[in-house]
């Protein structure tokens, strides 16, 4: 069993050196925090994760959450996550003081949750969804709902969920049919079914507060007729006691991974006695939900990045301990009289580990950058800076959600291979990471949906302004890297890829201009992969440049080996991953159309 | 639950039309067989698989094989697989009449086992390894051992295994330490531990005959000192009764997938009473094992190809039944008043299904081609033809084992994505295929080992003769395809890729010529992927050409839609997969060295 799950030094390097947390701290919102206090907070989260999360990771897989007697039975550490986590402020931390929070930067909240995710990805979601539900109430609901629900949610006494998906409406939210009927008493009566509800019910909280998308009778068809409701499992009586609100737990989905994180099927109003309270205005539900969506998508990317990191640590440990095979001599033969090498000495194993490392660290760098933009949006007083951060966040978000999920899964797959036959065995942890990470490409909008968002909405938004801003940021890094002789060739390569991106987009735009949107978006998935490689290469060049500057200036925060290893990983990503954009561009610019439905039957 | 697992029409198209089974049947060895009788055999295997294998597939995952009271308890269908399968001749079929076989072509044996693998990949291995073990005895052991063991193995009364791996020696067979001590009675005494032994022990057979690699005391170090032994779990007494031979079942590995296919840890001679009988000559064990290895590696590729096919069938069925979302209008919007589309109408879903189809069908085409070469080797009287088949088989084998395993896993991954959230749930079968197929990149030499074999041994073999032959075969197909206007552009593209392959090899050879074998082989994995894409594209062009010829000539064996769909899938493979070779070549020809160990610490 692996004994480590995270590289804290790299996390702090990214947080402080590369993504400059200190500059964010200058905003008034964070005046009570400084680097030292926040590092201490992260260290305490690491200590909590070492003690309460990581030791139970395998056990939670072996004792899946399950439906029993009308509720869901989960592992006892869920109780610890909610109650102790609540006490430590893990749920409340990023909220305003006013709402009971600590006003810590979102970057730090991200880093803290990343540590927890890496330790045991089955647990932080319980707190995270509670947080997300509370956030919707804080931002959009009236004072009464805030006072009634938020304090118990932030303390971890009550859970919270987001109820979007229905059996007939997976990715297609416009087809939601859960019904909300107004009553004279100010509340609505809810009727419907919701599926795939993470953290939907469990024995350790007194109440679960569901944020439910539903359609008020007579509302317009499609996404414009969807409203948001607070629907607790137990409603609060006038005297403060709780009473059952006709929210029933129909089932708990049994899954291939994340078995300790329950995924429920809920019924609302089976006995026609389910009350819901409208959040904000009618028919604005999807808008509210989507105003929270960037945070949720950063959360998904973060979880996947964390699993990729934990898997890398486990593979690295194995490769450092396992003897197998021998070095090739210059004769091309091996000498059987010689002792076996550790497998980390074999080039192919090093290639696999470097792939894991460059994807895992590249992913968390992307996540922290997005979190930084989120912080600027929430705390800066400079409208220009905020506008820029907003657009950059918008174009990055689909990649933030997708790259760690897709490339992360690929890196865990590679990490399993490092262990050979043992990687497939339950005695080793890689196979669990392999199963767990697979859901991240599906959560919160599949890769297909994210890709359509990127190419269909984000690239064209404000006449391509977001993409232009991203290009300028990349050019700025290219400029800085070019000052160093050994980085200049990589800077030049990345510059070439930016030009290639323009060509690709120009080529695709022809379809959009002709009104052929189906064709325009047909290869959106490939475009996602293409632009993600460029983005991650940018972030690696940025990391390498920071490392180089530290080396040159004699900054001793980290060792020389540490800085050099970042430069090495950048080179690896450029040679083995960024190169993939050449082929992707070739396919994207190929005018042949093979995936748009025609009269020809192709699946025979 | 999916109701289909295979496309029999495509299998027969490949067998008869593309890979021309009839021409193989002309050899004397197969004189008792004809197309009709062999098709009937395949149909009976399909019927057996429908009834006895497929219905138990999920159940076998849910009730894993496990160690209990010194043996391994497996699902009851293992008994059916061995006994009924044995009766049907599924184990004996490819053997000589003399050994009790039916002398069916290996191509047909491959097709028959492929059907079983697709129906339930947890079962055919029990018969397959018994077959492999019997084959070693038939080819290399004396008459006494043949008479004593082979008949009961071919009938499925007794099982058989191959015992190679030891705890300290996974991929590195030169480090085997299991000891064989000669006795005066002609047999040896065996002492040692073997792990990862598929089908190593189970309650449904009276005996398991292990073919064990061990080192005779005083034998040379490394691979040159390894001998092969027959070591039954129960030895045969003079009166024919069985007596325990001190082969103990220490454990059954619990795995992420293929849970119904047991994987044991065996101890030999714990009580110093384990007898083994030498097969052939001393110190020739690894040579014998490797003479059977091509067949074994075809078997692994076949299993992975079958899972990829079954997963494709399941995804296709779901996509044809599941409504979700709407078609994009020329305004770029969707109309919510419109009914939902079936997901198979969305371009991105079609892209995913076409990826599955092109990988699954390309894989089985490769497997059948290799099986055809195997048939020529075993049955042709034309020495020139045999020599050519031998070399072609040698260069293809690493790809035969690896492409279906690696690309197959990727295609199953894509297939799971087609189902969205349901793909991750145990109620749907995709997640099982996803877990099951993951072992194939590890079985019988990992992808890393296969890639070293391809670039390190097969490419340079006989001064590049095997590769030259492969190129000539590809050129021949290019020539035929060029006769058809609509195929000519693809033929030309493939020709360009052949030239690119020469450049890549030329570039890599510089390292080998300088004696820098570590660097030469450092990116062997990428070369594997590179050459595999070219090979599979060749096979797709070949399929498309056969389809085209059938269309032109009005051959009604299959429908016009069927032929057109093959041409369409070829185009898809060329546009979306063959293009990847551009980037792979770029990386392979990049002179930067990043994965060979130096003094610089890169994993920090």
Automatic annotation (TrEMBL), chains A, B:
Names of required cofactors: FAD
Keyword field: FAD, Flavoprotein, Oxidoreductase
Superkingdom, taxonomy of origin: Bacteria
Acyl-CoA dehydrogenase/oxidase C-terminal domain ranges (all copies): 340-452
Family the UniProt entry places it in: Belongs to the acyl-CoA dehydrogenase family.
Upper lineage: Bacteria, Pseudomonadati, Bacteroidota, Flavobacteriia, Flavobacteriales
Keyword Oxidoreductase: yes
Organism from which the protein derives: Spongiivirga citrea
GO MF terms, alphabetically ordered: flavin adenine dinucleotide binding; oxidoreductase activity, acting on the CH-CH group of donors
Domain annotation Acetyl-CoA dehydrogenase-like C-terminal: ranges: 472-595
Keyword Transmembrane: no
Domain Acyl-CoA oxidase/dehydrogenase middle: 162-269
Pfam families according to UniProt: Acyl-CoA_dh_1, Acyl-CoA_dh_C, Acyl-CoA_dh_M, Acyl-CoA_dh_N
Residue stretches making up the Acyl-CoA dehydrogenase/oxidase N-terminal domain: 36-157
Protein name in UniProt: Acyl-CoA dehydrogenase
């Amino acid at each position: 069993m692996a004994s480590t799950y995270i590289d804290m030094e790299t996390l702090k390097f990214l947080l402080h050196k590369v993504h400059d947390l200190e500059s964010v701290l200058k905003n008034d919102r964070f005046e009570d925090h400084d680097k030292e206090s926040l590092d201490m907070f992260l260290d305490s989260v690491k200590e909590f994760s070492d003690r309460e999360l990581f030791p139970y990771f395998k056990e939670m897989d072996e004792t899946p959450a399950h439906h029993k007697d009308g509720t869901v039975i989960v592992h006892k550490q869920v109780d610890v996550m909610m109650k102790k986590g609540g006490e430590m402020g893990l749920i409340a931390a990023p909220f305003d003081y006013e709402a009971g929070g600590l006003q810590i930067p979102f970057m730090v909240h991200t880093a803290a949750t990343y540590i927890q995710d890496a330790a045991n990805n089955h647990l932080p979601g319980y707190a995270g969804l509670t947080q997300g539900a509370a956030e919707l109430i804080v931002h959009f609901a009236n004072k009464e709902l805030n006072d009634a629900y938020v304090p118990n949610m932030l303390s971890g006494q009550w859970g919270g969920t987001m109820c979007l998906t229905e059996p007939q409406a997976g990715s297609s939210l416009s087809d939601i049919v859960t019904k909300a009927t107004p009553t004279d008493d100010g509340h609505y009566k809810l009727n419907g079914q919701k599926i795939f509800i993470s953290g939907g019910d469990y024995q350790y909280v007194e109440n679960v507060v569901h944020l439910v998308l539903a359609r008020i009778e007579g509302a317009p068809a499609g996404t414009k007729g969807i409203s948001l409701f607070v629907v607790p499992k137990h409603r609060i009586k006038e005297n403060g006691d709780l009473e059952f609100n006709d929210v029933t737990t129909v089932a708990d989905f049994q899954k291939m991974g994340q078995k300790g994180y329950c995924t429920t099927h809920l019924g609302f109003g089976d006995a026609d006695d389910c009350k819901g309270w409208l959040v904000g205005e009618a028919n604005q539900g999807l808008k509210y939900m989507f105003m929270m969506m960037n945070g949720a998508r950063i959360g998904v990317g973060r979880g996947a990045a964390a699993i990729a990191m934990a898997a890398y640590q486990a593979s690295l440990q194995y490769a450092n301990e396992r003897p197998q095979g021998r070095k090739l001599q210059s004769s091309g033969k091996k000498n059987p009289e010689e002792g076996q090498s550790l497998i980390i000495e074999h080039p192919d194993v090093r290639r696999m580990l470097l792939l894991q490392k460059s994807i895992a660290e590249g992913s968390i760098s992307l996540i922290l950058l997005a979190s930084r933009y989120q912080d600027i949006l929430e705390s800066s007083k400079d409208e220009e800076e905020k506008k820029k951060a907003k657009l950059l966040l918008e174009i990055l978000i689909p990649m933030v959600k997708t790259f760690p999920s897709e490339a992360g899964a690929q890196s865990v797959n590679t990490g399993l291979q490092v262990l050979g036959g043992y990687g497939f065995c339950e005695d080793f942890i890689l196979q669990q990471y392999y199963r767990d990470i697979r859901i991240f490409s599906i959560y919160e909008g599949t890769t297909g949906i994210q890709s359509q968002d990127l190419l269909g909405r984000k690239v064209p938004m404000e006449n391509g302004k977001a993409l232009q801003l991203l290009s300028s940021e990349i050019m700025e890094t290219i400029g800085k890297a070019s000052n160093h002789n050994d980085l200049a060739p990589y800077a030049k390569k990345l510059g070439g890829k930016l030009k290639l991106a323009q060509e690709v987009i120009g080529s695709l735009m022809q379809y959009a201009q002709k009104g052929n949107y189906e064709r325009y978006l047909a290869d959106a998935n490939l475009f996602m992969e293409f632009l993600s490689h460029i983005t991650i290469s940018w972030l690696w060049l940025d990391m390498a440049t920071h490392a180089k500057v530290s080396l040159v200036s004699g900054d001793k925060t980290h060792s020389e080996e540490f800085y050099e290893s970042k430069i090495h990983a950048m080179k690896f990503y450029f040679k083995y991953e960024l190169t993939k954009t050449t082929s992707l561009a070739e396919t994207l610019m190929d005018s042949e159309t093979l995936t748009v439905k025609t009269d020809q039957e192709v699946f025979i």
